[in-house]
Amino acid sequence: MFAPGRGGRALGRALGRAISSSSSSSSVVTLPSFLVPAFQTSTSPARRPFSVTTARPSKLGRTPISIPPNVDLVISEPWIKKDMTTYLKIVKKTVSVSGPLGKLDLEIPDYIKIDHDEQARRATLSVEDQNLKQQREMWGTTWAYLNRYIMGVSEGHTAVLRLVGIGYRASVDSRPALEEYPGQQFVLLKLGYSHPIEMGVPFGVKASTPQPTRILLEGINREVIMSFAAKIRKWRVPDPYKGKGVFVNDETIKLKQKKIK
């Protein structure tokens, strides 16, 4: 048992006085007004209200995507794809985006609906059940992929890599004996190692060096471009103490003070 505090003893004395004064005069016990709610009983006690926040639709996914006049959007019929990890059959749809720079295919789940208005030149995405977390997640993800594909086939994507360091150089050359596809280019890097680094450019990506310390990557698939840029950057990750390395686009780094023993 816990020892009663000062408030509990004062409350008990007040209740005792009220009961004793009422029992001496009559058989009806009168409680103070502030104690009445505590002694009230009911057959169905009211439960504490519990509020649940409703699932909000994706702000990005429900935004209409504008389609340029020179871009065509074709949605295929649903087809079944077998997952190689779970061996489950998943219903998919293929969205083909074609433009003046090329063509890209995007696989989307069947529960994502695309309302393609050819007259207004825009596409609106929706899902079957907004309360399911997986569908809400894929809603915005599919919107981002589709928007990048449309921009890629109409305008293209670029990535600029900056080589910062003494003696860091880059050039683009061909290696016929190492080609994985006809006309493949190779990026030759000099990053302070004892040998130059040769990296084959992925299919669909064009590499050039407007300056010895600049690498320009161009293509229609942004995912492939940034993946190749990350592989180049991995050879010389920016050093926070000296500030040297390979920087992608507008990447910056905050320099740290040297460790003094």
Automatic annotation (TrEMBL):
UniProt keywords, alphabetically: Mitochondrion, Ribonucleoprotein, Ribosomal protein
Start and end residues of each Large ribosomal subunit protein uL6 alpha-beta domain: 164-246
GO biological process: translation
UniProt-listed PROSITE patterns: RIBOSOMAL_L6_1
Protein's recorded name: Large ribosomal subunit protein uL6m
Top-level taxon of the source organism: Eukaryota
Primary location: mitochondrion
PANTHER family linked: 60S/50S RIBOSOMAL PROTEIN L6/L9, LARGE RIBOSOMAL SUBUNIT PROTEIN UL6M
GO molecular-function terms, A-Z: rRNA binding; structural constituent of ribosome
GO cellular component terms given for this protein: mitochondrial large ribosomal subunit
Subcellular localization(s) per the UniProt record: Mitochondrion
Record organism: Apodospora peruviana
Family: Belongs to the universal ribosomal protein uL6 family.
Function: Component of the mitochondrial ribosome (mitoribosome), a dedicated translation machinery responsible for the synthesis of mitochondrial genome-encoded proteins, including at least some of the essential transmembrane subunits of the mitochondrial respiratory chain. The mitoribosomes are attached to the mitochondrial inner membrane and translation products are cotranslationally integrated into the membrane.
Protein's UniProt keywords contain Transmembrane helix: no
